[in-house]
Each structure stands twice: as C-alpha cells, then as structure tokens.
Amino acid sequence: MTKQTLPPSNPPLLSIRNLSIALPSGGDRPYAVQDISYDIRAGEILCIVGESGSGKSMSANAIMGLLPHYLRPEGGQILLGGRDLLTLDEDVLRGMRGREMAMIFQEPLSALNPLLTVGEQIAEVMRVHNAYPGEAREKRVLELLELVGLPDPAAIRHAWPFRLSGGQRQRVMIAMALALEPKLLIADEPTTALDVTTQAQILALIARIQRDKGMGVMFVTHDFGVVAEIADRVAVMEKGILVEQGLAEQILNRPQHPYTRRLIGAVPRHRASPSTRATPAGGPVLQVENLHKTYAVGGGLFRKGRVVHAVNDVSFTVKRGETLGIVGESGSGKSTIGKCLLKLLDIDGGQMIFDGQDIAPMSEAQFRPKRRNIQMIFQDPFASLNPRQTVGRILCDGPLASGVSRQQAEKRARELLQLVELDPSAFDRYPGEFSGGQRQRVGIARALAMEPRLIVADESVSALDVSVQAQVLKLLHDVQQRLQLALIFITHDLRVAAQICDHLLVMHRGQVVEQGPPAQIFDDPQDAYTRQLIAAMPGRGWDPAAAIHHSESLNDAALAPHAS
C-alpha cells in the first residue's frame, strides 16, 4: 500500500542541484545524467525509478564518489550536511563513506570479500574509521547481526559469504552499511534477484531501520511494486533526465509524464483474471511422474552428511501450446526440475516421458538426438552467451552440430533475428554490444534455432526492466502461440506467472503444494504457503491498471475545454 503522508518538514539532508555527468563518447546522448535536481530529507525514503541506462545508479555512485575514472560531473552540486561532495578530495570522501553516507549494492556476493568471514567484514568498516575499539567492536558486530535479523549471530559471524543464502548476504551488506549509523543510506537495486518472501523481509527491514534511526534513504529500483511498498516520494528518470517527481501516491496513481505512464502500464497485474487464451488443444508433450532428486550435503571423513530432497515426488503434464508456470522461493526445487528435464542432472527416481518415451534412464548418447527438441532459456543472458562469438555464430552452432548445412543454418539464424525483432545487423555483432533485453532475445532465438517442441525458461525475465520484461514476455507468448511450443516457465515473480501461464505449480521445499489455473491460485489459494507468497508480493494493494485509467481520465478532462 502506498504511503499517504511525509515526515514532518525539515531541511534537506541531501540536495542534488543541476547535476550533469558527461559521457566520454558524446554522440546521440552526450550525458549520462543531465541537469537533475532533487532532495532527500531525514526520515524519508525517496525511490529513484527508471529503466537500465536511465542514470539511476550513476547519480547514486556520484553521491558516493564512486564514478568510474572516465566519468566526471560536469556541473551542479551534491550537498550533504552543507558540504558540496563534488569539491572534496578523495581522502575527505573516504572519511565520510560509512560515517555519513553508506551504500547497499545490488549483488551482495560480488560486493562481499570471499576471503573474509562476514564478521570480519563488518568489523573492518569500524576498524578503517577507528570506531568501537577493542571488545566494543566485537560486541557491535553481534548487535548489527541481530539488528538485521540474522539467526544465531555468534555463529553466523564466522560464516563465509558463499555459505549464506542471497537474502542473508543482503542482510550482511545492510549490517555493514549501518555499522557507523550514517545519516544517508543508498540502496541500489538491493532486492532485484531475491524471491518474493525474502524481498518482503528485506524491504520491511530497511523501512524499520530507516524509521528507527531517522535516516534518509535513497532507494534505486525498477520495480514499481517495491515503490508502492516503501516510497514516500518518487523521482522518475529517463535517459539521464529527471522527467517527473512527487509524492509516491501521486506518481503511482496519477502519473503525469508519458514515460511514467508507459512504465506503470508495463507492470504485470498482481492479480490474475480468467484467461482469454484458448485452452491448449494439443496432446501431451511431456509427462513427469513421481520425480525425485536428492542431494547429499555436509558430511566429511568422520561425519555423516544429510540428504536434502530438492525435488520430492513431483508430477505434471505439459501440452502442446501450453505454458506451465513453476513458482516458489529460492531453494524450492524449481530450477532443479528444469535441469533434470534437460538431463543436466541425474534423477533419483520417477519418469520423464517425452514424445512417448521415458528419457530418464537414457544415456547421454541415447538422449543426444532428442536434446534438440528440449531447449533452455537461461536466467543470465550475458553469462550464457559466449562473448567471443558473434550472434550469428551462436545461433548457427547448434544446427551445424546436428547436421544442418551452413547455408541453411545461416538462413534460419537471420529468420530468427527477425522473429525476435532484432536488427539484421545483429548477426555480425557480439553479445557485449547489446542491452540485457536484447541479449535475452538472442537467448530466445538460440533456443528456437533447434526447432524444439519444449522450451524451459528459467527465470528468463527476472533481472530485466519492467518495460523490457513486458516486451520479452509478449515475444515469448507470440512465438509460443505461433509455433505451438510447450513452455515451462520457472519464476519467483507471481505477477509475471499470472500474466503468461495457463497453469501453475506452487513449490515449497521440493514438493508441489498447490496447482491450478492462475485465477484460481490468486483468487482462492488453498495452501497456507501459497497465501504466504501472495501476501509477500510488494505493492499488492496497488493496481497499475487502475492508475493508468485514472491518469488518462484526468488528462481527457483537462483537454476537454480546449477541444471544445
């Protein structure tokens, strides 16, 4: 639910005035950030929203003095506590980082040092600033771990980052940022890759700490559900320009700028409506019966490990032209199912009947002729594409390996680029030359190059901007309907699942706890875990469709006198 009130009026904690950051290349867009101005007050959360490349993170890095060496502010001021940060040297800024301003980064595993325990990393913040000497430092580490809600602080302080879950690592990052109780907290996409319940916990934690400490918070995000959940005020950025700002209630429910309305219009609805799509009439493409997959964890030379049931007695059917959604938290077994279907993992029991044959017991040599019929779209399109190969080579390699002639493979690759709405010149370009959404289109084209009957899409839109996400979802739906493919869509985003799927499986700790059409799952969930997932969706009390309708009605009313 959006906030309706602001904290009492007080002087700005942070003031950005006419900030411009020039790009070294110039060209069609000479500025990364151009002439932007906004304030953040103590006790307030300002959400900065926009697509990738809009300048959100660039302005956050400018505040912290963390811009790349080739980017320098060309004009304007960044005033914190009356001092212009742009005029201070690096030694002074280093002393302010942590004490007066701190930052939570998007990917905690990359931001944390893998060679230090989490307790050592939190203590390092205090050591660098000569704060909390001696035993007080160790006590402060435990206080911070308890403050951010980590279990058993005395034990977890000795843990290595890779031993923690994504949500736990993000809590460690928050503890580090709060170590010296800064006045300003900058959170740069801190919940993007987290599942819905972990995301809800992190949002509640940031809001609680901000309220208790009276900090000013700058929250960078592209997720309007997050904005509706925590924002006091919102600033919307497009291509380096601040196009609209105001109270969260006004921006979310009565957006004025066309770009803001376009972003809100691309947000998947948080409730499902009865599907208008025709019921898939094709026969079963895949039947999974009593699938089991276990992992042995822990253990050692003199210690017995334990068995984790990653997938426990799971059964489902996917028909031709149908989209089956598999939803749940991280660790629920969603991605493990996808890897089992492609035989990237060996299963411990059950059947996977594809085209009338059980592929589970097949050897790699037996399965290889069928592999072309089951393809995968991966979560990270950059990591899954070879950066040293052109897009044309990436699209042609699979067909060439299966015996297709080079002429046919290249012809098919160019047709696929047109199908996924990429420019023909993409054939000779490299993955690094494309945006995240464009790379995901290449990933879709690569999966289609083998002319499969079944595609497994594993979190294929989770890291994309809302507008790019909408484009990729529409593309997937259009391609699937045109080619009558069976699609298994794995996601932790229930809004996305409601938009694209015909049938949903809700998974919890390796088991299917509920299944049915999206409308039934959302409107009448039967299992307590399903109800918990739906309740954890950020901004669930905000309806983007109603906001756009209301905004358009206001615009029509304003234009009516001029029309007459």
UniProtKB/TrEMBL annotation:
GO terms for biological process: peptide transport; transmembrane transport. Belongs to the ABC transporter superfamily. It comes from Achromobacter agilis. InterPro entries: AAA+_ATPase (IPR003593), ABC_transp_ATP-bind (IPR050319), ABC_transporter-like_ATP-bd (IPR003439), ABC_transporter-like_CS (IPR017871), Oligopep_ABC_C (IPR013563), P-loop_NTPase (IPR027417). It is an enzyme of class 3 (hydrolase). Keywords: ATP-binding, Cell membrane, Hydrolase, Membrane, Nucleotide-binding, Transport. It holds the Pfam family oligo_HPY. Residues 14-264, 286-534 form the ABC transporter domain. This is Glutathione import ATP-binding protein GsiA. Its EC number is 3.6.3.-. PROSITE patterns: ABC_TRANSPORTER_1, ABC_TRANSPORTER_2. One of its GO terms (molecular function) is ATP binding.
